[in-house]
Amino acid sequence: MTASEFCAINNIEDFNKYQLKKGEILKVANVSNAEEIKKEEVNRNVENIKKEIEQNKYIDYQVKDGDTVLGIAFSHGMSASEFCSVNNIEDFNKYQLRKGQILKVANTSNISKEEVTTDNIEKIEEIKEPINNYTEYKVKTEILFTV
């Protein structure tokens, strides 16, 4: 638990000026399962991001004159196998496109899977709701920094 977290959960504005009182009850991190809860929160946030990516990964594309399977796939940042898989095309060499046909293509305007990295997990941690996992501590004669 950082000093700023400690001050925030105990409504201490300036720890340099704060005077502890004997018998005062302060909240401190419950370290026995704090790491486990933190990992669960991060995993849950990462999973939610991945689901959102999957839901918005593909958009509709209307086939135009002169389009080819590979041309459509590559122009939307997709491999031939991904494009064929998404559109249930068994063999792109034999597949006949029809003008006006609607196919699924990568939604390149949205976040890509590669953008969900361990670096971004730290950003997720910063914006998530604080974990309310605190234990009360009764002040004896210690100073604030030893808590």
From TrEMBL:
<dbReference type="InterPro" id="IPR036779">
    <property type="entry name" value="LysM_dom_sf"/>
</dbReference>
<feature type="domain" description="LysM">
    <location>
        <begin position="59"/>
        <end position="105"/>
    </location>
</feature>
<protein>
    <submittedName>
        <fullName>Putative peptidoglycan-binding LysM Peptidase M23B family</fullName>
    </submittedName>
</protein>
<dbReference type="Pfam" id="PF01476">
    <property type="entry name" value="LysM"/>
</dbReference>
<dbReference type="InterPro" id="IPR018392">
    <property type="entry name" value="LysM"/>
</dbReference>
